[in-house]
């Protein structure tokens, strides 16, 4: 509930993970109300022979969700950094820039959680 940006990930080698994305998408929308920043990520693109979800299906779903789409490989590192860079860039405009230095108490409250 505290998150600002969300990565909805599935395995391109598992149709069931792709099919469950709508449930996760709705959960994020309900919890965040409004338009949270989302990225859709199809992982395991290093396994093309085991592919069950086409790249086009991922792109279509991303358009429906109104978010960017990437295919990645956690194994080889392909596009992983690009995904996180895109998320940070999308989040930047949503953060207010404070004029003064942050107190140590404020810094301790901030978190980055990757699930």
From TrEMBL:
Top-level lineage group: Eukaryota
Keywords, comma-separated and alphabetical: GTP-binding, Hydrolase, Nucleotide-binding
UniProt keyword GTP-binding, yes or no: yes
Pfam families in alphabetical order: Ras
Membrane topology label: Lipid-anchor
Keyword Nucleotide-binding: yes
Protein's cellular compartments: Cell membrane
Gene Ontology MF term list: GTP binding; GTPase activity
A Gene Ontology term for the protein's cellular component: plasma membrane
GO terms classed as biological process: signal transduction
Protein's name according to its UniProt entry: P-loop containing nucleoside triphosphate hydrolase protein
Organism this protein belongs to: Mycena metata
Source species taxonomy: Eukaryota, Fungi, Dikarya, Basidiomycota, Agaricomycotina
